Known about the structure:
The chain is of the alpha/beta class. Helices cover about 25% and strands about 25% of the residues. The longest helix has 14 residues.
Amino acid sequence: MKTVAFVPIRLNSQRVAGKNLRPLSGSPLMCHILRTLTQVEGIDEVYVYCSDESIRPLLPDGVRFLRRDTSLDRDTTLGREIYDAFTAEVKADLYVLAHATSPFIRPATIAEALAKVKSGEYDSSFSAERIQTFAWYEGRPLNYRLDNIPRTQTIEPVYIETSAFFIFSRELWCGRGQRIGDRPWMAVVDRIEGLDIDYPEDFAMAEIIAASRNLPQ
């Protein structure tokens, strides 16, 4: 069962300028997830999917560069367009879609999720953060009643998808256009492992975490 991991990269990010190449603990941000993927047992190939070949010298050992069309760098480009283009060029049984904005996801977390999908018991997997607090949706409480307020220790948790990774089969994406199927394995991560760098304050937090962990360069 061929398994391919890919990380879409564009260099013209809007909310955090140049974030994918911005240094974090001595290495460009994108290199953290790429190194992680090369350490995951069961992944056969790791790709960066980017329109700019100037990043080639920065790639960790074992990572392949695949040039994508510059039309996929627009602010209006949907993830679906990128995944369609990549899966059309690189054939595999399973895909691990990962993002550079999640530098702290652990190889063991991805490896466990991949093993769950390969077992056949689950048809996909994704990373998620467990939130156990009072949640609202569309103007109403989501996980409690206003006339019966529970203790936070016993309240029903909600789960938030993080952007760290999604694992799906070629059949699921190409046949149904879905990266999460009907029987997903939810890889629950903590706040740090699930950190997604979307805004400048997120990068500042990542720098504090990286410094405290003394991440290798």
